[in-house]
Design goal:
Blueprint lengths: L1 H9 L2 H11 L7 H7 L4 E5 L2 E4 L4 E3 L3 H4 L8 H13 L4
Antiparallel strand pairs: 1-2, 2-3
GO molecular function: adenosylmethionine-8-amino-7-oxononanoate transaminase activity; pyridoxal phosphate binding
Pfam family, one: Aminotran_3
Protein name: Aminotransferase class III-fold pyridoxal phosphate-dependent enzyme
Length: 91
């Protein structure tokens, strides 16, 4: 996981924005305006905060569309998931 984060940080924001414009559709967005301004590239999360590739710290008010309402980086939840996956990963 650390390797991936270092790789992400090493790429320039413009490269991610170009990939986003070429390969991703943002529902409910004006794609022309979004492509002119450039999308926000999120590179880190902790608690209720996100950081973009320009170093801006922002509150994730949407909580990942309600998927992370307990916050990011919750080690106890990762540990619980790890233990469960070892016991019964799929049924």
């Amino acid at each position: 996981m650390t390797e991936r984060n270092e790789t992400v940080a090493a790429r320039p924001t413009a490269e991610y924005r170009a990939l986003d414009a070429a390969h991703h559709i943002h529902p409910f967005s004006d794609m022309g305006a979004l492509n002119r301004a450039g999308s926000r590239v999120i590179v880190k999360a902790d608690g209720v905060y996100l950081w973009d590739s320009d170093g801006n710290k922002i509150i994730d008010g949407m909580a990942g569309l309600w998927c992370v309402n307990v916050g990011y980086g919750r080690k106890e939840l990762a540990d619980a998931a790890y233990r469960q996956i070892q016991e019964l990963p799929f049924y």
